[in-house]
Structure formats: structure tokens, C-alpha cells
Amino acid sequence: MARSVAEHLVTQLVAAGVERIYGIVGDSLNPIVDAVRRTDGIDWVQVRHEEAAAFAAAAEAEVTGKLTACAGSCGPGNLHLINGLYDANRSRVPVLAIASHIPSDQIGTSFFQETHPDRLFNEASVYSEMISTAKQVPRVTRTAIQHALTAPGVAVLTLPGDVADEHVEDDDEPILVPGACPARVVPHTDDVAALAKAINDAKKVTLFVGAGARDARDEVLELAELAAAPVGHSLRGKEIIQYDNAHDVGMSGLLGYGACQDAMEEADLLVLVGTDFPYDSFLPSDVPTAQIDIDASHLGRRTRLDVPVHGDVGETLRMLNPQIRAKTGTARKFLKSKVKQHAGIMTKVVGAYTRNVEKTTPIHPEYAAVLLDEAAAEDAVFTVDTGMNNVWAARYLTPNGRRRVIGSFLHGSMANALPHAVGASLADPDRQVVALVGDGGLSMLLGELLTVRAYDLPIKIVVFNNSSLGMVKLEMLVEGLPSHATDSPSVDYRQVALALGIPAVRVEDPRDLSKALEDGLDRDGPALIDVITDPNALSIPPSISSGQIRGFATAMTKEILGGGMGEVMSMARSNLRNLPR
């Protein structure tokens, strides 16, 4: 029996576990869309922008671990996918993207809407190929699926609309290659022995843990206890290692907090565990450093490397831990001092925004984040916009082993939170999904509120509305520049949501915030809570260089000379509370 290329492709996706394709219909995509209509077990999810389709697919893949799919029509349609696909590929989640193309006999003639998707998507994927004939389809599609699942990452299939209508003769070849069990990446015994010696010889060890430790939490905590090591983490490592961890000292980087930075700088051995932390300025160059990573290309590319170990974190630590002598004396004193320092910093910071803030307007964003953390479900999925919302989520959302926090943590794209929430909610409609959005990110892909309404998704959208690009403002100040073009007109997103049929409230008085969050999160279906937050609230990194201090001082001087004394004083009042005292 012959089937069209589109039908065969959709059948292969269903066999691979794909339940929906996110996208916008268009002429060159029509054969695919119609095949989805006629195929059981798969749905078409109509978004309002193809970038949102890629973000939604990425979030679904993140929370399920399964292959997901998105699609864009020829030319501009599939070009809109590229930012979300960059994000998915850097996050290493399995997504298959269908980039439909102009008629095959017009390729190379500068035809209407002609681009070259098979070339354009190379940098945003682990696999990108064009299907030129029907005979390619079974094997090329299988290959794309294998690449997406096993890299993991994004695989792109470029498909001309006329080829999608061609027919494939069924044969005896399987629709899919049987999945193999993941390979074990076991480190060399000599490397493990070298790391064991370094840890045993060191008097003060600090562990810095990333997302690569996801399946090795118990082993990391065992090593921390043996080595009497404080445990810091990256943003993506937070949900893995922070909770129920007596060795926790917080996070480093621009979003960081607590005693992590000092613990790294004061150690005589820093062990990077499953992290490719990119901010080398926060990694001490004068501290001997070991690194464990499943990807050998990550070893030593961020900071000095004295002891490299190529291997899976779990496999490595199961070999390493029996070789570690339990530390006493100086090591225990170091651990105790860093944990105590961390507790003191966190207590002061918490006190700084919880004392006398119930009457302070605009609302402190830290306070809003804490109340949201307290109101949200124990297994909530938080999707977080890039910018200051990343800071508040990193510092004040509490992981517990069941919650997930998803964001554009490697690509750093704006506007990811709402479309990420769409994918997470469709993947598990019974699980609470909270989109922690900034007004800048929300306005960029505002149309996706229509997607939420159209599918009646039970997403809770919490807008930290400060009419400002807060992170950009901070970047300018650090560089010695007064903020410019970072503010935007005030928008009442409650009214926008209500106009679309989404229940919504606007909160300007902090005394109303707790009830507004609780009511919104408890409501059936979608809800939007528009929280008016302080535009001058900026994050203070855990380590501030002399250059950054000079930058702040220079920028403030320029503000004053430009007649902005009131703005400077307002910013000072808003941020002094963030400085540990």
C-alpha cells in the first residue's frame, strides 16, 4: 500500500511517541497538517508565532524526556522557528522540526519566499537534511529521530511541499530503529585515582554542581560528606542539589547568592561536577580545579584544569567515593564556617525584604517571588523569563525534588516563559504550570495568550510588571552607562487578559498579593496575575569587581549630572536592602 510522504512522516513520528506538532499552518505545510488531521494519536497545536512553537516543543521535551515536534511553512514561517530551536538545541532536548520548503523545481531560482533551511538550521541542530525524493523518507526520518533522541538535540527535516505529496511504497523496513539502552561513559581508573588523591590531599574542598549531576544526586551528597565539602551550584543545578542538602552554600554567577563564591575562592581544591558553567570571571583562576564531565570537549574550556575526568558523573562517583578518606579537622571547620556564612547571608537578605514591606509600593519583586513560592504546588512546573525574573526565580523558588524550573538558561532568549508554559501544560494538564513572566518578555510574544485561551490551558501567568528591561538596565550601569531605552509605557495586562477571556487581577498593594496569588493558582483554567513591581530593584551579584563598582559610580554620576538625582536616590533605596549586612 502506498502512502504519501507526509503520511509516512507523521506515522513515523507517532511511532516515536510524538503526540502533537506545534506550528502555524501554511501552503507548503498543508500536506503535513492534513496527514495529522487524519492520523490517530497526534494533534496539531496552533500557536501564534513559530518561535513559540519551538519553545513549546522544547518545554514538552524537557518535562517528559520524549521526542517532540514543531513545524514552520516555507521561508518566513520556518525562519521564525530558529530562535526557539537554538534554545532547544543548547538545552539538549529532543525536538524534531519540520521546515517545509518551496516547490522543488523552483529551488535555486530566487523563487517567492525562497530560503535554504537545510543550511540555515545547521548551527541550531544536531542534524539537518532536505528530503528531495520520496525514497529518502523512511531512512532520513529514522535518522533524524535517532539524532534528536540520542544526541540529544534538534533535528530538522526540510521538506518541499510537492515532495510531501509524493507517494512512498511500503516495504518491510521498520518504521523506526529499535532504541538502544544508553551507553555507560565510564572514566579511566587512572583519572579517578588522580582525583581521589587530589581530594584526599586537599584541606578545603568545594564542589560546584551542574545539570550533569541530575541522576547522581545521592553520589554527590555522599562525596560532599566524605570530603567535608561545601556544595555550590549553577542555576541548572539548583533543582537537583539544593534541597535537603546540609552542605548547600548557594549559587554563583550574575544571579548568584549566598556563600558559594567565597567557598570556591577559599578552597584549595574546587571540583566542577557536571557543569559547563560559562562565566569564567566567577571561577577562581588561582584555585586548583578538577572537573568531571560526560562531554570531553567541556573539560578545561572555562577555567584552569588540574585534574580532568571524562565520564558520567554517577559512574565516576561510584568509582571515586570508596577511595575518599573521610575528612576531619580543618576540612570540617571550613565546611561549618561556609554553611554558617551562607545561613547568615540568607537570613539577612530574607529579613531585608520581609520587614515592613507589606505597605511598601511598588511591590518588592523579591517579596512577590517568595509569596509565589509559598503558594505554588509542591510539584509545580515554573517557566521563567530571561532577565530579572531569572534572578528572583534562582534566589527565591524552593526546589524539593518534584518541582521543575525551566528557562532559556543557556541561550538567554527573551519571551520564553509563556510558550514554554504552553508545552509543559499540554504535556501534563493535571500538573500546575506557572509562567513567571516579565512585562518585556510577555509583550514580545503576547499573542500566545490567545493560544492559552484557545486550548483553555490551566496556566497561571504571573507578570512581574515593572515597565522596564531590568537586566539590561543593570548591564548598562555595570558598564558605566546611565540606563537608556530600558523603560516602556505602563501596560495593564489584566485588561489585556480579560479582553481575551482569561480571568485576571492587577495587584499594586503588597497587602493584596498573597490572596491574589492563592486565588489565581487555585482557579480552574488559565489565570493572569499582573503584579506591579519596583522598576529600580536590581540584583546584586555575590562578587562585585572593582571595575563593576567604578561602572556603577560612573553611571550614577552621569545620571546626577543629567538631572536624574531623584532616579539615583530611588534606585539606592530600592537596592540597599539587597546588600548583606
Automatic annotation (TrEMBL):
SUPFAM superfamilies on file: DHS-like NAD/FAD-binding domain, Thiamin diphosphate-binding fold (THDP-binding)
Chain ranges of the Thiamine pyrophosphate enzyme N-terminal TPP-binding domain: 4-115
Pfam families: TPP_enzyme_C (PF02775), TPP_enzyme_M (PF00205), TPP_enzyme_N (PF02776)
Transferase is among the record's keywords: no
Domain Thiamine pyrophosphate enzyme central: residue ranges: 192-320
Domain spans labelled Thiamine pyrophosphate enzyme TPP-binding: 385-531
Keywords per UniProt: Pyruvate, Thiamine pyrophosphate
InterPro entries in the cross-refs: DHS-like_NAD/FAD-binding_dom, POXB-like, THDP-binding, Thiamin_PyroP_enz_cen_dom, Thiamin_PyroP_enz_TPP-bd_dom, TPP-bd_CS, TPP_enzyme_TPP-bd, TPP_POXB-like
Family per similarity comment: Belongs to the TPP enzyme family.
PANTHER family xrefs: PYRUVATE DEHYDROGENASE [UBIQUINONE]
NCBIfam families recorded: PRK06546.1 (NF005114)
Full protein name: Pyruvate dehydrogenase
